[in-house]
Every structure is written in structure tokens, then in C-alpha cells.
Specification:
heterodimer, A: 412 residues, 34 strands, B: alpha+beta, Jelly Rolls, 16 helices
């Protein structure tokens, strides 16, 4: 069951008119070759237009490998000449690391270690370093399950910090918080969704102070905020929880659209061409300008499990926990192909160049054609446990296990 | 004692004070007991800039709890650019560090140590780490620097840290002591493990040592070592359908300091985790609330930490004062999951726990239980039951 709540007649009329005029614009463009600045890419699309090599092993086709100083289920990001990862260490996992290594050589450039100020209990399958850091190319923000948020520059200089569990003493989740921060318009968006003090905030990237903050439902969620641009409304941020979706204006936090329904609490929605592809009973394509709130289509076979769906070209793909990759037509949800991979997936698929890349927990990376027969082109194995979604930039994949970070060599 | 106000920059102070740097620092900072600047910064030999660096360190250490406080980045830069003589005086500022302050100060000092390179004053750092009267956070940080630069020097310090108030150092000292007898004859290993069991405070370290002792024939009562409150009386069940029970005030909490327990059922905490299993005591129920009460004697009046773990929503009162309330169901459970500070009086104290079970039907949501202990800040169990 679902229902759309348009928050005012003005917005209803405005959006309807906008849609009719065909003026909707989609999310920001996919990442280009250079950087990979947050969870699931620069804009959360999970798409990078960079060709990568298709085969590697631990001994061949690897540019470098570095051990992390602790445990992590977050993804690495690539910013400028740095690859940045987070980790936690110590008996209570309360030592929070930001590690920056040289993108070319893998040599350690700097490391910062902070003390957690919030809760550090989490389920064994998660980690205190579960939220992927984000960057605007000049600054890096790192959020941890302890609700500590740090902003450093590219030299590792602390610019500001927020100890959100100090400010909101009941914030946190002992399963482990996992929503990643997203940078939009010089603000950091965080979703602290839990059974305690739940809230969503826009935090000024320059000062670390709140631009706005709203109370959210007291329910756990691990999905990350996502940027959605709608002409006439300005840039919005999409926040989801298991009860639904909401769009808020980035500038002032005004809620402009609510959609109630059963939405996955872990996979993040995708957006393209003005539609929101929400993980709800498979995937549903929602038009936030539609009056009824009924999805344009809904495809139960696009079961997401834990992985976030990815939209690329005219297709949408999902990956369930059992390792079945389903590709459907983004226009009507009709299934084009079901590809049985293997293993258990906690990470999300990404589209890199003309391939879909999916990494299972056991360390096997599947490289699948992103068109045609969606054939499996290669299976590449690395040692370790791989819960993290990979990053892709400049012809390389950055694959992170719970304890190590690998860079694949340039395309053959 | 808290620092009363943000100290002004010494560069704006009278020249006479600038010359008498140590005195200037002492005058400008209403020093608390842990900041022993006078021992490290003397007027006669303090290099220029020490006072400014220390003042910046104190501003970092006393960072407030809200907002980004981006203005402190300049203070961190000042600390990061320090000379070697400033390092230990700045470390002393951890004595008054707030949670945010720990990270601001650590980040500045880490950068300072990187910048100082081989000029890091290892002997001064060693003395600082060895002094258990210095702030624990500062000593742990200094030990990390020392370990990476002079590992043998750092390791030697651990030999005297088996009862150290800095828990990471105590833990490392216990690990070193146990490793030292790994190849010794079993009687020596047993003796050392028994000794280390009393020294350890981290729960996982206690559990690991206890497991080793059990494997080697000792009947260790882990729940006793960790000090769980074991003897309880549990009430009848009250309504929590729809989650109404957490906020509802039922008769037991109307008299939280001395509930009428005449009809309550005696319950003994079981197992290594000292768990009070309400399903076993009252019957497996969903959508219900039960109260449990225990009496704990203290030799003297004092503040102490109440540490409770439960997969259910819980409220804890000590002598009628609410010290913990968490309305979270079946997200996780762990020893010492929620911690609150309470005032205990000499003699008998009343501990009242409200434990709420919801209506989730999943098998993993069946548990209705809690475990509770009373400790000092290091985790040393306190209190005995009459």
C-alpha cells in the first residue's frame, strides 16, 4: 500500500505543470573518469564512464594493495591524487581512522585517528566504519556508526567535527549505523535513523554548523540520502526509511513530497530522468510529480536484498542477496535478463564503462556485460571478506575487503 | 573543576608576562588538578611560543558539545606547528578534555608529532606515559607515538601498568604479561592468569582469561568476576501492547525508591552474563512490562556507573532516581550496553529495573531479559548484595 502526500496545493499544481512541460531534469550527471566522491559514486548513481580491465588475481592485474589499520565495511572514495578509506580499531572499536593513500602508489599519505564519542556496538556483519566518506574535491567528511562526523582537508587537517550522539544522546543503533553522508550544494546531508533520537540534517560544509535539521521517525534505516534535482523546486535531497520516501529542499529543508509505503531499509533508491527507482517490493519507478502516487511500474523480480539498484542507459539493475542480477527496462520495468552470479552480496553493483561490476562477500568480482546478453565476462577472486561497494575511477577499480584495499591495474 | 573561561591569547598580554611564560600560563589558565604545567614550563627556560601553544591546546581540549566549531582549526594549526618543548605541556591539557576536545587536541598533536619528526622528545614522552597521575587520554596518545618511534622503550613501560587507570595501557600490560608466560610451566601460567583475571577490566579480556583458566581446570565464576547483581525480585506483568508500557507509570515506579515487593517472585541471575530471564521467571509473554528490584550495599556513599544490557526497552532507577531509559527493542544486546551515573548512599540501595517486551513475533525477538552491574568508571565492580 502506498500513498503520495503532496504537501501543498502549490507544489501539486507546480509539479504537475512542470511535468507536463517536460521540464524535469534528472539527477546530476554520472561520474566522469576522475574521481569517485561518495557512496555509489559522485552522485550516488553508481555509474562511471571509465573502461577497466576485466581480469585480475591477487598476483596479476593489481596496481597495489594496502592493509587497513582496522576493520571497515565502508567503501573507499577517490579524490584528486588520494584514495581515502575509513576503519575502526581497538577492543571497543572506538578508534576511528581516516586513511589517505597515494592514488598511484598506494603509499600512506596521512592518517588521522579520532576517539568515538557515541555508541560503538554493532552486529558482527557490520562495523563502526560502515558509512562511506564523501568529498567535494577539497574536503572529506567521514561519518561513523558512533554518529561522529569529521571534516578534514586533503592534507588531513581537521576543519570541524560533529559528535552527533553527544548532541542527541539517544542517537545510535547497536546493529550499527550505516547511512553514508552526501555532499550537495556545499552541505553535508546525514540521516541518523534509529529507534532513539532520529533526525536528518543539512550541515554546512564550511563551518560544520547546522543549516537545518528535522526530526525523523524512530525507526532504523541504513539507506543514504540522495540528490534529486527538479526544475522549479531547486535541488532536493531524498531521504528514505522503511515507511517511505521524502524529498526536501536542500536549501531550507522544506518537505515537498512524501511517499508512504514499504521501502527497503538498507538499499538506497536510484534516480534518473526525473524518476525515483525505489527499493519497494522489488523496484518501483515513482514520479514525484504524479498526483496519485502510484508507481509508473513496479517489478517484484528486481529484488534488492541489501544492494542498491543502479540505473544506466535505458536499464535498471538490482542484485539480490542470493546473487541473482536482474536487469530490466527502465521505461516499463520489463525484465530483460536474470543472471545468476554466486555467493552472498552485501555490496551494491556499479556500472563501469560497458560492464556491470558486482563483488560478493567471498571476494569474487563478477564483470558482466552492461548490454546485449548481459553475459558474465570474468570472475576475479581476491582473498578476504568483501562487504564494500567498489569505487571506480580512471580505469581502475578500488576493491575494499574488511581489512585491505586493492587497486586494479589499468585496462589491458 | 572546569576551566572557567576561554583564556586570552598571551600575545595580547603584558610583556612582563610574556617573558615569564610559565607564570603567564598559570595566571591565564585557572588550572585544574590534572594540568601540571608548572612542572614542565618554567619561566626561565620556556621557549617563546610555549604559552600560546598551551593556551591553544586548552581551547581545543575544552571544545563545546555543539556545532562544528570550525574556528578551532586555527588553534589546531598553532598546536601542530609547535616546538618539541611544547609537547608535554600540551598533552597535559587532556586533563580537562571534553569529548569533542579529545579529538581536536589529538588531531593537532598528531600533526605536531608528524612535523617534529626526529625532534620528538622521547624521554619526556616516556616520563609522561609512565606517570599514572597524568591524564589517561594524553598518556595513551603519547604511548602510541612512543610505540611507533621507540617500541622497546614503550614496551618496557607496560611492566608497571597492570593496575593502570588508563585502560588501554592496562590491557596492553596484561597482554604482555600473559604473553611472557606463554611457554612457561603450567603452574606459573595458572598463577599469572589468576592474577591477570583480577587485574583485567575490559569484559572481553576478562572472558578470554577466564576461558583459558577453565580450560586448565579452574572453576571461574565469570558473572562474579564481572560483578553482576544476581538476586532480584520480579513483579507481575503489566500491559505493553502497542508499546504503551514504556511511558506508562505503573504502581512499582510510583514508589521507585521502595516498591512493594511482597508478591514479587525471587529470581536469580544466571550464567556468565548474569542474565535475569523474565521469560523463565514470569512466563513467555509478548507486549508486557515487568519490574525487577534488587538491594545493593555500598560501604560508603559515592557516585558509580550503572551498566545494563538488554535486548528490550529498559528504565533503571537507583533509590528512586531515574538514571537510564532506553526505548529500543531487539536491535542488539551486550554487557554494559547502556551506562548511567548514579549516586549511591552508604548502606542499602534500591535498584529498580523496568524491562519492556514488545510484540515482535520473529524468533530473534523472543528474549525478555537484562543484566546489570554497578562499577567504577574503570569497570571495577562495586557493591554487594545483603
Amino acid at each position: 500500500m502506498s500513498a503520495t502526500t503532496l504537501l501543498s496545493g502549490f507544489f501539486r499544481r507546480r509539479w504537475a505543470a512542470t511535468a507536463a512541460a517536460g521540464l524535469l531534469i534528472g539527477a546530476v550527471a554520472p561520474a566522469v573518469a576522475g574521481d569517485w566522491l561518495g557512496f555509489h559514486g559522485n552522485d550516488g548513481s553508481g555509474v562511471a564512464q571509465t573502461p577497466i580491465r576485466r581480469t585480475w588475481t591477487a598476483d596479476e592485474g593489481i596496481a597495489w594493495k594496502v592493509d587497513l589499520p582496522g576493520r571497515s565495511v565502508a567503501s573507499p572514495i577517490v579524490v584528486g591524487d588520494l584514495v581515502v578509506a575509513t576503519a575502526s580499531s581497538g577492543p571497543k572499536q572506538d578508534q576511528l581512522h581516516i586513511v589517505a593513500v597515494d592514488r598511484e602508489t598506494g603509499e600512506l599519505r596521512w592518517e588521522r585517528i579520532f576517539q568515538a564519542t557515541g555508541r560503538t556496538l554493532c552486529h558482527p556483519t557490520s562495523a563502526v566504519a560502515a558509512c562511506t566518506p564523501a568529498s567535494d574535491g577539497e574536503r572529506i567528511v567521514a561519518l561513523y556508526s558512533s554518529c561522529d562526523l569529521f571534516c578534514v582537508d586533503l592534507e588531513g587537517r581537521l576543519l570541524w567535527q560533529r559528535n552527533l550522539a553527544v548532541e542527541h544522546p539517544r542517537a545510535g543503533n547497536d546493529v550499527g549505523m550505516g547511512s553514508s553522508p552526501r555532499i550537495i550544494d556545499d552541505a553535508v546531508f546525514v540521516q541518523i535513523d534509529c529507534q532513539g533520537d532520529a533526525f536528518g540534517s543539512a550541515i554546512d560544509l564550511a563551518t560544520g554548523d547546522d543549516r537545518w535539521s528535522v526530526t525523523r521517525a524512530k525507526i532504523a534505516c541504513w539507506a543514504s540520502p540522495l540528490e534529486v534535482d527538479l526544475e522549479g523546486q531547486g535541488t532536493c535531497v531524498l531521504m528514505q526509511n522503511p515507511r517511505g520516501l521524502e524529498l526536501r529542499r536542500v536549501g531550507d529543508g522544506t518537505a515537498v513530497w512524501l511517499w508512504e509505503g514499504d521501502v527497503g531499509g538498507i538499499p538506497m533508491a536510484a534516480t534518473a530522468d526525473g524518476l525515483i527507482y525505489a527499493p519497494t517490493n522489488g523496484v518501483a519507478a515513482l514520479d514525484p510529480t504524479a498526483e496519485s502516487g502510484r508507481p509508473q511500474w513496479q517489478q517484484p523480480k528486481l529484488s534488492c536484498g541489501i544492494s542498491s539498484p543502479v540505473v544506466f542507459g535505458d536499464a535498471v539493475a538490482s542484485l539480490n542477496r542470493g546473487g541473482v542480477l536482474v536487469v530490466a527496462d527502465a521505461a516499463d520495468g520489463s525484465v530483460r535478463k536474470q543472471v545468476r552470479l554466486a555467493g552472498t552480496f552485501w555490496s551494491s553493483p556499479i556500472v563501469v564503462g560497458d560492464t556491470i561490476v558486482a563483488v560478493n562477500m567471498e571476494g569474487t568480482t563478477f564483470v558482466v556485460e552492461a548490454s546485449g546478453d548481459y553475459a558474465i565476462l570474468a570472475k576475479n577472486e581476491l582473498p578476504g571478506s568483501f562487504p564494500s561497494t567498489p569505487a571506480a575511477a580512471d580505469g581502475s577499480l578500488y576493491l575494499q575487503s574488511e581489512t585491505a584495499l586493492w587497486k586494479t591495474a589499468a585496462a589491458e | 573543576m572546569r576551566l572557567r573561561e576561554r583564556p586570552q591569547s598571551l600575545s595580547a598580554m603584558p610583556t612582563r608576562l610574556q617573558r615569564a611564560v610559565g607564570m603567564a600560563v598559570m595566571l591565564s589558565l585557572p588550572l585544574a588538578g590534572g594540568i601540571r604545567l608548572a612542572e614542565s614550563v618554567h619561566a626561565a627556560d620556556a621557549p617563546a611560543g610555549v604559552a600560546e601553544a598551551v593556551a591553544a591546546a586548552v581551547r581545543l581540549a575544552t571544545a563545546g558539545p555543539t556545532g562544528g566549531q570550525a574556528g578551532l582549526a586555527a588553534d589546531a594549526d598553532l598546536v601542530a606547528a609547535m616546538e618539541p618543548a611544547m609537547l608535554v605541556p600540551c598533552l597535559a591539557a587532556f586533563a580537562e578534555a571534553t569529548p569533542a576536545g579529545v579529538n581536536w587536541l589529538s588531531s593537532g598533536l598528531d600533526r605536531a608529532v608528524e612535523q617534529l619528526g626526529e625532534r620528538v622528545p622521547l624521554d619526556e614522552l616516556t616520563a609522561f606515559v609512565a606517570d599514572a597521575g597524568r591524564p589517561a587520554r594524553g598518556r595513551v596518545l603519547a604511548e602510541r607515538w612512543l610505540r611507533s618511534r621507540a617500541p622497546e622503550q614503550a614496551a618496557a613501560l607496560l611492566d608497571s601498568m597492570l593496575s593502570d587507570p588508563a585502560l588501554p595501557l592496562r590491557r596492553a600490560a596484561i597482554e604482555k604479561r600473559l604473553a611472557a608466560v606463554a611457554d612457561a610451566a603450567e603452574p606459573e601460567q595458572l598463577a599469572v592468569h589468576r592474577e591477570m583475571l583480577t587485574a583485567a577490566r575490559d569484559v572481553d579480556q576478562v572472558q578470554a582469561i577466564a576461558a583459558w583458566l577453565r580450560e586448565h581446570g579452574d572453576a571461574v565464576d565469570v558473572s562474579e568476576v564481572l560483578g553482576f547483581v544476581k538476586q532480584w525480585r520480579a513483579s507481575e506483568a503489566f500491559d505493553n501492547v502497542g508499546g504503551i508500557g514504556f511511558a506508562a507509570v505503573y504502581p512499582p515506579e510510583e514508589a521507585a525508591a521502595a516498591p512493594n515487593v511482597a508478591d514479587w517472585k525471587a529470581v536469580t541471575a544466571e550464567g556468565d552474563g548474569g542474565e535475569v530471564d523474565l521469560n523463565a521467571a514470569i512466563g513467555t509473554r509478548k507486549g508486557v512490562v515487568s519490574y525487577a528490584v534488587a538491594e545493593v550495599d555500598m560501604q560508603r556513599g559515592r557516585t558509580a556507573e550503572v551498566r545494563i544490557g538488554s535486548p528490550c526497552a529498559v528504565v533503571v532507577w537507583i533509590n528512586g532516581e531515574k538514571v537510564i531509559d532506553r526505548e529500543i527493542y531487539h536491535a542488539s544486546e551486550a554487557i554494559d550496553q547502556y551506562v548511567g551515573e548514579a549516586t549511591f548512599r552508604a548502606g542499602t540501595n534500591t535498584v529498580l529495573v523496568k524491562c519492556c517486551q514488545n510484540e515482535q513475533t520473529e524468533s530473534w525477538a523472543a528474549d525478555w531479559k537484562f543484566q546489570l552491574r554497578i562499577c567504577d568508571p574503570l569497570g571495577t565492580p562495586l557493591g554487594v548484595q545483603p
